[in-house]
Amino acid sequence: MCDNQNCINMKTTLLVVGRTVEQHYITAINDYIQRTKRFITFDMEVIPELKNTKNISMELQKEKEGELICKAFQPGDVIVLLDEHGKEMRSLEFAEWMKRKMNTVNKRLVFVIGGPYGFSQKVYDVAHEKISMSKMTFSHQMIRLIFVEQIYRAMTILNGGPYHHE
Predict the structure, then answer these.
(1) Dihedral through CA 34, CA 38, CA 39, CA 41, nearest 10?
(2) Are 141 and 27 in contact, with CB atoms under 8 Å apart?
(3) Name one Pfam family in it (predicted).
(4) Is 133 flagged in the annotation as binding?
(5) Does the annotation flag 120 for ligand binding?
(6) Would you call 114 exposed, middle or buried from its count of C-beta atoms within 10 A (0-12, 13-18, 19+)?
(7) To 5 degrees, how large is the angle CA 92–CA 18–CA 118?
(8) Is residue 69 within 8 Å of 132, Cβ to Cβ?
(9) What is the dihedral sign for C-alpha 111, 115, 116, 122?
(10) pLDDT tens per residue across span 81-114
């Protein structure tokens, strides 16, 4: 699957704002994360959601979340935002994209799901790429599940597993 040692060194992280609250999502997300760990180093990091947001503007909330997101980054991270304006890919294309990343990223490949109002400009400025999961809008809870399933699907495609069918 990999052409060099990078895939062994590369860590993949899904960075999210706020914890997943619905139990059925938590169960399914954890299941796909465990399945994916058979193929790559993969984890989900949660940035605590802001408290008392009723009295602050949407822009200020995005700025404060952006600061917390940026603090979670490490030197050498390749940052990919899950963003409605990003590139759309079919599952096979995403698998090939992941293969390229596994051969080129030396540290962490960090996918980021922002808060309810999206990303601050500061986060956009440090990002390397943007990927869109769909033209449709999904809840932040649901997109976590959809994304971890797609990571697992990509890994099974790259490893010749029976999970994905054309």
Answers:
(1) 60
(2) no
(3) SPOUT_MTase
(4) yes
(5) no
(6) buried
(7) 65
(8) no
(9) negative
(10) 999 999 999 999 999 999 999 999 999 999 999 9
CATH 3.40.1280.10 fits 9-49+56-157, yes or no: yes
| Sign of the alpha-carbon dihedral angle for 165, 134, 75, 67 | negative
**pLDDT tens digits, 40-72:** 999 999 999 888 888 899 999 999 999 999 999
114 is in an annotated binding site: yes
135 is in an annotated binding site: yes
Please indicate if the annotation marks 134 as binding a ligand. yes
Distance CA 79, CA 118 (A): 15
